[in-house]
Design brief:
Elements: E1 4-10, E2 25-27, E3 32-34, E4 41-45, H1 47-55, E5 63-67, E6 73-83, E7 90-94, E8 105-106, E9 112-116, E10 128-129, E11 132-133, E12 142-148, E13 152-158, E14 163-168, E15 173-184, E16 187-193
Antiparallel strand pairs: 1-16, 2-9, 3-4, 3-8, 4-7, 5-6, 5-9, 6-7, 10-11, 12-15, 12-16, 13-14, 13-15
Length: 194
């Protein structure tokens, strides 16, 4: 029986690997999102949050879960963070290759951002293609479980770069080490093995 030391809610995504469990920073208000004018960006990030992100080592390749008022959820990958030297206010530029980045603008109220360390490092078999990265990268992989709902199938990428379909059931853990969840129904959790 495996022992687990972390868990993260998984949002289906074709291009961004499941991030490391453990919230690095949560921003509930003050920042906005713009995806309607070219590459997506998070704007007006308060100086206190920019400082905390820098101290935590958040940089390009790390991951943000964004929830907007609908409430729709999106997985976004950071390209880089720029800071206004005079005000300390930050702008976070996001990778445009993420198909989940919405082509809309959201401001302030009701938009929140949760930051995680990313889990993708390029390997020789990896390439950026139209729907995201190929290759599993160097993610350690995660066991999956369905937190609620009826049994479902999930389209996943394993640590060995195999794309397979697995069955997930509530209360049962599938210990196949997975790096990416392409498609599934129900609320999926990724568990890190100790």
């Amino acid at each position: 029986m495996s022992l687990y030391n972390g868990a993260i809610k998984v949002i289906n995504n074709n291009s961004v690997n499941i991030p490391e469990p453990g919230i690095v920073r949560y921003i509930a208000s003050g920042a906005g999102y713009s995806g309607a004018k070219g590459d997506p960006v998070i704007t007006d990030v308060p100086a206190v949050d920019v400082t905390a992100l820098k101290l935590a080592g958040i940089t390009g390749g790390d991951v943000i879960y964004m929830v907007e008022p609908s409430p729709n959820e999106y997985v976004l990958e950071i390209k880089n963070i720029q800071v206004d030297a005079a005000t300390g206010i930050g702008t976070i530029f996001l990778n445009a290759t993420s198909p989940s980045a919405p082509a809309a603008d959201f401001t302030g109220v009701g938009v929140n951002f949760t930051f995680y360390k990313g889990n993708y490092q390029p390997t020789n078999d990896a390439a950026i293609v139209s729907d995201g990265y190929t290759g599993a990268g160097t993610s350690p992989g995660y066991s999956l479980t369905l937190s609620s709902g009826v049994a479902t199938t999930a389209d996943v990428l394993t640590v060995n770069n195999d794309r397979v379909t697995v069955t997930l059931e509530a209360g049962k853990v599938n210990d196949l080490q997975v790096v990416k969840l392409f498609e599934s129904s129900g609320q999926v959790l990724a568990l890190s093995v100790r």
